[in-house]
Amino acid sequence: MPKIIHYRDRCIGCNSCVEHAPQYWTISKADGKSCLLGSEKKKDCFVRTISTVEVEANKRAAQDCPVHIIHVIED
Ligand code: SF4
How far apart are CA 16 and CA 13, in angstroms? Predict the structure, then answer.
C-alpha cells in the first residue's frame, strides 16, 4: 500500500499541503505546523497508509512543499 511520510518537525506552516489535499492535511492551532490526519507517529516522522486513488493529490502536496518534508511512497 502507498504511504505518506511527513517530517513534521521541519514544517514551516505554509499551508500549501492543506490547499492541495484538505482531507489529509490541517494546520495545528497549537504550533502552526501541518498535521497529517490519521497518521501514526514514528521515530522522527508521521506515517499514514493510503490507497492508490489517494496518491495523486498527496504527490502534488509533496511536490509543492517548499521544505520537501512530505514523501509519498508507492509500493
Ligand atoms: S507544504 Fe510543507 S511546509 Fe507547508 S505546511 Fe505543508 S508540510 Fe508544512
Answer: 8
Per-residue pLDDT tens digits for 4-15? 999 999 999 999
- pTM equals 0.96
CA of 6 to the centre of ligand 1 (A): 9
Q: Which three cell numbers stand for residue 22?
A: 484538505
The set of residues, in sequence order, having a beta carbon less than 8 Å from that of 51 and lying 6+ positions away, is: 1, 2
C-alpha cell at 67: 521544505
CB 25 within 8 A of CB 34: yes
Ligand 1 atom showing the smallest separation from residue 61 Cα: 1
